[in-house]
Amino acid sequence: MHSGQEDILARVKHCLPEFAGGSVWLCGAGAGDAGLLTLLAANAIAQADCIFYDALIDAGCLALARADAALCCVGKRGGRASVSQAEINAALTGAARAGKKVLRLKGGDPFVFGRGGEEALALAQAGIAFRIIPGITAALAAASYAGIPLSQRGMSQSFAFITACDESGQLPHNINWPALAQGAEVLVFYMAARQIKALAETLLQAGRGADEPVAFVINAGLANQRVVITGLGQAAETAKAEVLASPAIIIVGEVVNLHAQLDWFAAAAPKTKERN
Amino acid sequence: MHSGQEDILARVKHCLPEFAGGSVWLCGAGAGDAGLLTLLAANAIAQADCIFYDALIDAGCLALARADAALCCVGKRGGRASVSQAEINAALTGAARAGKKVLRLKGGDPFVFGRGGEEALALAQAGIAFRIIPGITAALAAASYAGIPLSQRGMSQSFAFITACDESGQLPHNINWPALAQGAEVLVFYMAARQIKALAETLLQAGRGADEPVAFVINAGLANQRVVITGLGQAAETAKAEVLASPAIIIVGEVVNLHAQLDWFAAAAPKTKERN
Fold first, then answer.
1. For B141, which of A134, A176, A177 is closest by C-beta distance?
2. Is the ipTM, as predicted for this complex, more than 0.85?
3. SS3 content of chain B, % helix, strand, coil (to 5)
């Protein structure tokens, strides 16, 4: 029996690239704790000379870094950039030019609402070698941990991921909302908790039903996970009453009804309040 | 320095659940080789008594199983079920009732076009404890490895994942195609290579432009990765000329144009034909 006795990274070594000095890896850390890291991501963290990481990266992920690796938080929170995108791009380029193995560790997936595309373009334009490592994006984590399949025979053959917050902090105005609302059976919104009032109104005007089920999924997979189910007509009120904060993933569609049967996370949680 | 010297699973043990006998874990293996496994998935494989796996699971993933684990392929290929869904459900339930630690290892993500929802419902209805472990779905792998961001400031604030193949093997007829085509800036299709003619016609009729860029991404991340870029108007012809087979991921939208600058995979590949 192998389990736990051999180094798992050594055993999949043939699948893991070598981190060359002078290059940058843009890597998704997944949305949650270190369990959602891919082996590629764990390998990247273990090899990096310096790691530029987002604010929401779990400490357990960074604990896999070399003891002598330089760790630098460049995170954004609540729309406020502590370090500007131009500064991040400059830091990545500068460290690579100094010959370092540079890891840009991003929450979720680098190409899903994380500006990974912009960072990659900056590297390409600077002539820096780079690699993109996908990650478990927040919508996938939310769906699995809340027990809400995004696709389901007879219910959902199409689903859309949408940011509810553009650069100005508002609901994006250049989305064709009536078409989107009618076109995708399931809608999954990122960064939506603060926009829920405008979002619900927009979807109702666009023809989604007031009784259509909505799930707010907060801290998916973590000990403080919350899943709040409501209807589109009362979603804004529910969000207010439940004091829902960002980052929440919001899922709209009939598949939300499956949560009642598939809520394995609550079933598996230790029943600390029960006594017997 | 830690890297490679300590067992990575032991170091994130606090994030990894214990696999209880009599339960089933529905787990995404990611879309590609073992590098895309999450630590949660690697932990699941290492602990399982029996593993029911899809045909497309990489052998490197299964190599992490215990030497005495029972491995059973229940895969589907090209739409043909070698084992029916009812038989898979019965096998999972039966093994769990026998007290085994049962792993259902699925390509990609279990809740994205993989019938994971149906399997979870069958387990819930049978009263079997289960867990869902998300995985890197094929669209995320394709985007990262092809250098095509799914979101990009000024280009894409919404993208949809759509199956191009319903139960009858045809393009789904109950999708509101005009709305979907106008609503989501980027469209990502699963199981689309065989449907490309009908798909391209449908999207053109629905108002997408003939010159809109389309990427076929085949075997993302593997040594035989291919990315073929074309326009929507000639997509069917291109697919025929290039002999594109399933499973291909098809990405439609302006972001496809970024591939030209962000094709890190081709840049990193060994130039076997170049000399000196």
1. A134
2. yes
3. 35, 20, 40
